[in-house]
Write a structure and sequence with these properties.
It is a single chain. This protein is about 55% helix and about 0% strand. It is mainly alpha-helical. The protein has a domain at about 45-74.
Length: about 70
């Protein structure tokens, strides 16, 4: 059975989350240059993924067009 929570009293501050064992990395301030370079890297990855998706979709379209030709030939 889970332990019962005690009701908050008015004026009590919320408990701060514990960082021990949470596995979070400490916050490190970045320079504006680092931020822009990181954004560029993320955008490059996004474009690469989109290009791969487009190539895959084009192949699928070619397969469907060939199937259409076969169906229309009958």
């Amino acid at each position: 059975m889970p332990p019962k929570k005690q009701p908050k009293t008015q004026g009590e501050a919320p408990a701060a989350p514990s960082t021990e064992g949470a596995g979070r990395k400490p916050w490190v301030k970045k320079t504006p240059v680092e931020v822009v370079l990181e954004q560029i890297g993320k955008q490059e990855q996004k474009v690469e993924q989109m290009e791969a998706d487009l190539t895959r979709e084009k192949r699928e379209l070619q397969k469907l067009l060939k199937a259409k030709e076969v169906l229309e030939a009958k």
